[in-house]
Specification:
The protein is α/β, with parallel strands linked by helices. 47% of the residues lie in helices and 13% in strands. The strands form 3 sheets. Strands 1, 2, 3, 4, 7, 12 and 13 form a 7-stranded mixed beta sheet that branches. It has a 4-stranded mixed beta sheet with strand order 9-10-8-11. The radius of gyration is 21 Å and the shape is globular.
Length: 441
């Protein structure tokens, strides 16, 4: 789930940005004004972040304070953003701004009438500086409510350069090549992939990348909105493709049983830890943070990535996720909250966290040349350069009961499929049943 994927995990990310010319233009920021016009006011911000991520976001909030004079207070919600924010609204203690980690939750908030439409200043900045796809994901019913401040690139396969070199292979260009290379890695003494199946969200990410490349963006969008049933042949085909990987004991470290007992950090450890068991691990750009911070790997030298490869002749997928800033109508300081959102829309605000590390921005005005290393630049180039071909994480667009609940819905059913991938049609039928109940259709 994005709640975990870009919150708990990206906090470790060691990818860093240098401050580029675009980010530090020297003039006052339109949103902040630089005139301390908000002195004496306080903006309350709620979000899932904790630990290093919360500290880095606080640097952004401190920069806002330096420009406007407004004080800020951050409240960590944990994973259950919707429940916590709803309770605060009912209790008369609504935050001014919420950093929402799911499209589905943003849509839920908007439909409940909780959100303030973005100001003309914010809309103008977002229209100019963000690809339309990010505007669409921040909109409900044609009204723009959310600014995607922080993004994740979730179509990256991370590998040990030593493992690939030992096997005599180079990063593959297609999914079939990746599986073939995986057998070559296995022959050299390591399993091909570490799979973190204990965390069901990792399996949804696997499915989404295969499905987007194989079925195409139109069907991806239809399935994400449940306008296409999960019993569609395209879903069965993607599950069949994924099942070939899951059931191949040469490809999955420890086989299916061990994969189901391995969480996401554990899957990274199996590749980049002190006793490697696999040559590759699929997940988002946040893998780099775990590899660097927990296992001391130098990104670009001891750990590198290649784009998730094209499946069956389709285009290479670019699946993303992110955290959107929204302003609540019931906040105590809605005006100052909107000024914060206007500031977050600027490349200067993005640069503050970017310099601290563990951050990717969908803001096109944050010059790609400002990225401090080749790996970060490649990740950002792929994400921003994909433009409107980017697709937001499908499970994060779904109702939480289907796409984001441990032990239920898509998470559980894909774990069951990892355990026994012998009947893709049956799994597709179970997914459709769960989806129909969660979507109410």
């Amino acid at each position: 789930m994005m709640r975990r994927r870009t919150t708990l995990l990206t906090s470790c990310t060691a990818l860093a940005l240098a401050l580029g010319a675009t980010a530090c233009g020297g003039g006052p920021v339109a949103a902040g004004g630089g005139d301390k016009a908000l002195s004496g006011q306080t903006v309350t911000v709620a979000g899932v972040w904790s630990g290093a991520e919360q500290k880095n976001f606080q640097k952004v909030l401190d920069a806002f304070t330096a420009k406007t004079g407004a004080k800020t207070q951050f409240v960590s919600t944990g994973d259950n953003v919707s429940t916590v924010v709803g309770s605060k609204i009912e209790g008369g203690d609504a935050p001014d701004v919420v950093m929402v980690p799911q499209v589905g939750v943003l849509q839920q908030f908007a439909k409940k009438g909780w959100l303030k439409p973005l100001s003309p200043t914010a809309r103008q900045t977002i229209t100019a500086d963000y690809a339309p796809v990010w505007q669409n994901y921040g909109s409900v019913g044609g009204t723009l409510y959310g600014l995607y401040f922080k993004a994740a690139h979730k179509s990256t396969v991370w590998y040990s350069p030593d493992a690939l070199a030992q096997a005599g292979i180079k990063p593959p260009k297609t999914y079939d090549e990746m599986l073939k290379d995986g057998h070559t890695i296995s022959d050299s003494g390591l399993a091909a992939f570490a799979v973190g199946g204990e965390d069901g969200w990792t399996l949804t990410d696997w499915f989404e990348n295969v499905y987007l490349s194989q079925a195409g963006p139109q069907k991806y969008d239809a399935l994400a909105a449940h306008k296409l049933k999960w019993t569609d042949p395209s879903v069965v085909r993607a599950l069949t493709t994924l099942g070939k990987l899951f059931k191949d004991k040469q490809l999955v470290a420890g086989g299916q049983k061990e994969a189901l007992n391995t969480d996401f950090p554990g899957s990274v450890e199996k590749v980049f830890g002190p006793k490697p068991e696999a040559g590759m691990v699929y997940e988002g750009d946040f893998v780099a943070g775990v590899a660097h911070d927990q296992f001391g790997r130098t990104i670009g030298k001891d750990a590198d990535f290649f784009p998730f490869p094209a499946v069956d002749g389709g285009p290479a997928p670019v699946v993303s996720g992110g955290d959107a800033a929204v302003v609540l109508k019931d906040g105590k300081n809605v005006t100052a909250g909107m000024k914060l959102l206007e500031y977050l829309a600027t490349p200067e605000a993005a640069a503050v966290w970017a310099k601290a590390g563990g951050f990717l921005s969908p803001n096109r005005k944050l010059d790609l040349a400002a990225y401090a290393d080749d790996v970060t630049r490649a990740t950002a180039t792929s994400l921003v350069g994909a433009g409107d071909s980017v697709r937001f994480d499908m499970s994060d667009q779904a109702p939480a009961a289907f796409g984001g609940t441990k032990g239920a819905g898509e998470w559980k059913l894909l774990q069951d499929f990892l355990r026994d991938p012998s009947d893709p049609k049956a799994t597709a039928a179970q997914l459709e049943s769960a989806a129909a109940k969660a979507y109410g259709n």
